[in-house]
Amino acid sequence: MDIQKLWMVAEEAWSALAEQFEPVAEQMCAQHDMEGRTFGLLLSVLTFEPEDTTPGHLMVRGPYTSADEFLNRLQGAADQGFLIEIAQGRYRLSDEGRKCTHNIADEIRRVMAKVDPLPLEDSGRLAELLDRLVQSCMNTPPPPNPWSINLSYKLMPHLNPPMPFIEQAFSCLSAYRDDSHLAAWRRSGLSAIALESLTLLWRGETTSLAGLYNKLFQRGHSLGIYQGALQELGNRGLVAGSDQAIRVTRAGKGFRNKIEADTDKYFYLPWSCLKESEMSEMLALLTRMRDGLK
User: Fold this and answer.
1) Rg of the chain over all Cα atoms, to the nearest angstrom
2) Are 121 and 134 in contact (CB under 8 A)?
3) Which of 93, 148, 159, 276 could form a disulfide with 175 if both were Cys (CB 3.0 to 4.6 A apart)?
4) Is 153 buried (19+), middle (13-18) or exposed (0-12) by CB count in 10 A?
5) Are 173 and 133 in contact (CB under 8 A)?
6) What digits encode the pLDDT tens for the residues 201-236?
């Protein structure tokens, strides 16, 4: 079984499901005068409990975004009454924030259950297989450290109805891929901003400093920060050229390819918990789910 193909179809099924519930999520957020990004932030705060949430917590999984940007988002949610600032830079859900978060999540999950295209027995079987995979990821010895997946698993609903459980299992697997990517990157010693800059250049999404900044300004970093990241990459021989015409060197391509290969190695190791026949079964169920939702 081609495991990468299996994950690709899982992502396609997840995307098809999202198309069904995202309009409802947007409507629910609008009713609470809340941006969708704020709802995602409140879910993150919920997973960090019983700890308070700080920009540092959010930067573990989102290392490319500045601490100031995360602080602005947290304070913005506090200004709306969804969070309470317990101490400087430390936040918790307010009663209103907790109520809104659960109400929106519950409504979204009702929609998921309603649009399930599979017979109950089949979607239940898919949930069972995905749960075994998620458990295997959480219990596989590092690397990676299963930090993100453990947080995501805190939001796991009951097994029945199966579709909300399936959706959260997808989220858990995506979190484990983030864990795997972080483990593959951090051992290189490259800074987070330099890595993201290299990634965009490696993908061919831009070839200049101005292009990098235009694509990433929402991270909350200044143009000078990205100029420093390019200098870091240049000092390691990973990129060359001027700020107006940057190219990834052979060493840079090899470096970025190695991070991708290590990410895959870590991410797919726990999938050995499934037999070949079970992977084939999962692929068939995911394909039917994806096609049925479309």
Assistant:
1) 21
2) no
3) 148
4) buried
5) yes
6) 999 999 999 999 999 999 999 999 999 999 999 999
Largest CA distance in the chain: 59
The DSSP H or E segment spanning 91 is strand 90-93
Q: Which pLDDT tens digit goes with each residue over 144-175?
A: 999 999 999 999 999 999 999 999 999 999 99
Residue 84 C-alpha from the chain's centroid = 25
State whether residue 70 is helix, strand or coil: helix
pLDDT digits (tens, 9 = 90+) for 42-78: 999 999 999 999 999 999 999 999 999 999 999 999 9
Verdict on whether the full-model pTM lies above 0.85: yes
DSSP state of 92: E
Cβ-based neighbours of 28, under 8 Å, separated by 6 or more: 103, 104, 107, 108
- The residue ranges of DSSP E strands in 214-275, in sequence order, are 239-242, 245-248
Using the 8-state DSSP alphabet, how is residue 237 labeled? T
Distance CA 249, CA 232 (A): 14
Give me the pLDDT at residue 187, please: 86
Percent pLDDT > 90 in the chain is 98
